[in-house]
Design goal:
Helices cover 32% and strands 24% of the residues. By secondary structure, it is an alpha/beta fold. The chain has 3 domains: 156 residues, 3-Layer(bba) Sandwich (FAD/NAD(P)-binding domain); 97 residues, D-Amino Acid Oxidase, Chain A, domain 2; 61 residues, no CATH class. A 7-stranded mixed sheet has the order 6-5-12-13-14-11-15. A 6-stranded mixed sheet has the order 8-2-1-9-18-17, with helices on one face. It has a 3-stranded antiparallel sheet with strand order 3-7-4. Strand 12 and strand 13 form a beta hairpin. Helix 8 packs across helix 10. The radius of gyration is 20 Å and the shape is globular. The N and C termini lie far apart (55 Å). The structure holds flavin-adenine dinucleotide (FAD). Flavin-adenine dinucleotide binds next to helix 1, strand 3, strand 11 and helix 5. It comes from Conexivisphaera calida. This is Menaquinone-specific polyprenyl reductase.
């Protein structure tokens, strides 16, 4: 029996498994997919600078996986098109990176977990993303999901060469168009009010692709570690990655945050030992690291429900916190965006 058992080897589980194994911990992972053909329902966009730094620990070079680097992102605010220059935003071959990380430790597949595995004496990690198969459903009112759907398409004459996003009113979601290179793109949308398929059809009617390579959909968890409960169950079962809610609510960005959460957990395990993991401390570290996500979540939810008014001090404080995060080096590293003040204002202003 391994010291650490990881259920789910997406970005969070595979990073954690590789990191701990390279540090001498006995780890076993399982995944319900045939990992030799690993697939990830995701638009594969991330901050290459942040990934470069994170993957250095594993001696993996993210540049080997980059598909298309952005010069900037067009932000379509219904009529006005803003161009936000980027420093390190890119799409990358996420399944290939995950297969590489999975190759660094012991993983059994395809093995579908259906609850708590029969391994009560070891540390069990729930890295099954949105499913939280081991921990089970979150406490009522603490979990929040955004439905999302995307297509991988090919254009002979693409409508735009660069990245493009169209936020929906009151932060209910947004549409994305991300280049993958070779004329291929992910075009998708997520919307709280389930209008995303309509927005998507509208875009695809205006910009009909030559080929649709595949379609996929799944919800994105946007409730952060400061809201989602529980993040762990005693004696030793803890969540990491999207199972712990580490997705930036305003952008749906979960790849790098999931790896960051895995790094926090890896350090804790290495310090305490798998048998004596200080679960409470891990939870606190997660909440602290992703406290800007909590402000973003409160702000977005208040905007969505129309209860964030210009005189509401708590909402203004959250908007301010979010603006600071976007302008900070941590925010830039996480999002790959290098916004100017006007862009930061744009990100947190009502429309
Ligand atoms: C449409 C869409 C587009 C997105 N685009 C982006 C983007 O461009 N950039 C970005 O940063 N984020 C994006 N995200 C969010 C991002 O994909 C996730 O937040 C991130 O992948 C979470 O990683 P994870 O390892 O925690 O979970 P996951 O990637 O979901 O991995 C969970 C793993 O658990 C396995 N599993 C599930 N159930 C079981 C079971 N019963 N037994 C065993 N194994 C199981 C799965 O096979 C999978 O390998 C997007 C999400 C969606 C839905």
């Amino acid at each position: 029996m391994a010291d650490v058992f990881i259920a789910g080897t997406g970005v969070a589980g595979s990073y954690l498994g590789a990191r701990l194994t390279l540090s001498g911990v006995d780890v076993e992972g399982v995944d319900s997919q045939d990992v030799t053909k690993y697939h990830s329902a995701c638009a594969w966009a991330t901050s290459i600078e942040g990934m470069r730094e994170r993957l250095r620990t594993l001696d993996v070079d993210i540049d080997e996986y980059v598909m298309r680097e952005a010069n900037g992102v067009y932000v379509d605010l219904g009529g006005t098109l803003h161009y936000v220059p980027t420093r390190h935003l890119a799409t990358f071959d996420k399944p290939a990176l995950i297969r590489r990380l999975i190759g660094k430790f012991r993983v059994k597949y395809p093995v579908r977990i259906r609850g708590m595995p029969d391994a009560s004496s070891r540390l069990v990690i729930d890295a099954t993303g949105v499913h939280r198969i081991v921990l089970g459903p979150a406490d009522p009112g603490t979990d929040f999901m955004l439905p999302a759907y995307q297509l991988r398409v090919r254009y002979r004459n693409p409508p735009m060469e660069d990245f493009y996003v169209k936020p929906f009113p009151r932060y209910s979601g947004y549409l994305w168009y991300f280049p993958l290179g070779g004329g291929e793109f992910f075009v998708g949308a997520g919307d709280l009010h389930h209008m995303h398929l309509e927005y998507l059809s509208e875009f695809l009617e205006r910009h009909a692709p030559d080929d649709v390579l595949y379609r996929e959909g799944r919800p994105i968890r946007i409730s952060p570690p400061g809201v989602l409960r529980p993040l762990a169950r005693r004696p030793r079962t803890v969540a990491v990655g999207e199972a712990a809610g580490v997705v930036l609510p305003i952008l749906g960005e979960g790849i790098l945050p999931s790896m960051e959460s895995a790094e926090i957990l890896a350090r804790r395990i290495l310090q305490d030992g798998p048998e004596a993991l200080d679960v409470r401390r891990y939870e606190e570290e997660l909440k602290r690291k992703f406290s800007a996500f909590t402000a973003a979540y409160r702000f977005v939810r208040r905007k969505q429900s129309g209860t964030c008014r210009a005189t509401d001090l708590s909402c203004i404080a959250d908007a301010f916190r979010l603006a600071l995060f976007f302008a900070s080096s941590g925010g830039r590293k996480l999002t790959g965006l290098a916004p100017k003040l006007e862009h930061v204002r744009l990100a947190v202003s009502p429309f």
